Amino acid sequence: AATVFEQAVLELPANPAIWRFYADFLHSAPAPAPAPAAGSHARLEALYERATSAGAISTEMLLHWAGLAAAGAGGAASARAVLRRGVQLRPADARLWLRLVELVHQEGVLCGGASGGGSVQAVVDEALDAIPSGSVGPVLARLWQPVLEEHVVAALQEVGGRSVRETTHALFMRVIELGAVPDSTVCSQYLAWAVLVEGSKGAARVFHRVMELVKGGTSALVPFILEFVKIESSKPHPDLALVRQAYEAALRDAHDEDAGAIFDAYAQFEEDRGDSAKAGAIKWRAKGA
């Protein structure tokens, strides 16, 4: 069978499907003794090298190659080199950049600082320059996650004091602003971080900042809005006007199937504060919604 694949890649060297099928065959075929695992890895890496030279290596093959390299003697440095070649060949490929960012972050965690691949921030900036704006949306939050984690840890440990907190605020806002629609997960992380370092005042600050960006509203932010409602309404003396503003924003943007539960929570909030008239009005609105 290997002979058949060799003939195929000689005749159609630019066809990525043939190289991929060949790689699948080598991955499943037993390698010669005495070191089957090492032999299998070596054969695959050699094949991936040939596919790269032919300009026909796929993203899946590059990711698998990086995994093999990481498990080998070269470790993370070898895997990083493979991914660097990958993003040179396919600069617009978000999956390759995402894996490179994750790898550099992991190296930094293990080394207690910047890895041999440089800072995570620098790699993310490279990725954002290379990935077309129309393709970056689905992976934007994941690309930034390691950078956010580093800043959050530094802020929680009070490394750099107030300045690092302000830098972290700015970084969260940068990530949120980059997306065509703010990422709800990032917004919720921002909210949680603000509560940890600044308390409920920090939560209100984040809520105002994020909502200012999306004056037209978006259903993607409803979970974030409801998280803020929980934080603010749990205070001994919540800002009632702010909680009501948040509930109204959630109702404006929520999908129809979610509105009922939000109306119920809103009405209960008013009941808990002894305002049966407002609670009744909200329940009446819910019936007509």
Helix-strand layout with pairing:
Elements lengths: L1 H10 L4 H13 L7 H18 L5 H13 L3 H15 L4 H18 L8 H11 L2 H4 L3 H17 L5 H17 L5 H15 L1 H14 L8 H12 L6 H14 L2 H17 L3 H13 L1
Helix pairs in contact: 1-2, 2-3, 3-4, 4-5, 5-6, 6-7, 6-9, 7-9, 9-10, 9-11, 10-11, 11-12, 11-13, 12-13, 13-14, 14-15, 15-16
- Overall pLDDT score: 85
Provide the succession of SSEs. HHHHHHHHHHHHHHHH
Bulk shape: elongated
Gyration radius over CA: 26 Å
Protein described:
- By secondary structure, this protein is an all-alpha fold.
- 76% of the residues lie in helices and 0% in strands.
- It contains 16 helices and no strands.
- Helix 1 runs antiparallel to helix 2 and helix 6 packs parallel to helix 9.
- It is elongated, with a radius of gyration of 26 Å.
- The model has no long low-confidence stretch (mean pLDDT 85).
Can you tag this structure with a few keywords?
about 290 residues; elongated; mainly alpha
Short description, anyone?
The chain has helices spanning 2-11, 16-28, 36-53, 59-71, 75-89, 94-111, 120-130, 133-136, 140-156, 162-178, 184-198, 200-213, 222-233, 240-253, 256-272, 276-288.
